[in-house]
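Researcher:
Attend to token order:
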Amino acid sequence: MFDTRELGRRPGVLKRITRSVAAPQGLGIEVIGVPEGAPLELDLRLESVMEGVLVTGTARAPLAGECVRCLEPLAQEAEAEFQELFSYPDAGDWIRSAEPGDDAEDEERLFLEDDLVNLEPVLRDAVVLSLPLQPVCREDCPGLCPECGARLAEDPEHHHDAAVDIRWAALRDYTPADHKKTPRTRGDDPQEK
């Protein structure tokens, strides 16, 4: 929560804040995220406007996760930019009267609560949307062997003998010399009779 009382309700008043906060729980996706309690560095600009307080900022945080190709642990940095308008509680009334609009739009609007800005939902959206969906330890990570699960980065020469389809296994040792090359004529096959 950030206090906006210093801004008052005079449009154009600006306040810059730099702060480090502990990351909340669940700030990430299945394979990568910000560890709970990790330092979340915030550079904020709070600006008083006619409808409320416009918050513009950048969030930086360490990431922990695993490579989606080789499953090795990885550590990266996240940086997310965001901008959100927090309306004055009474601003909703004059906005609705000036612009008759959709009620769903009003539900999505964020409001100041006792002159305080709650940035957690905004930060959660910004940080999670900035995360890589397929994080890799390095761009050319070869991943795991699909047959045995060996890490291909540790053994670049890793290979398996070609698997034989069981349906063709009987033909593996076949050579043309094994079979007489006599042409068949119609009627030679007893099943045709």
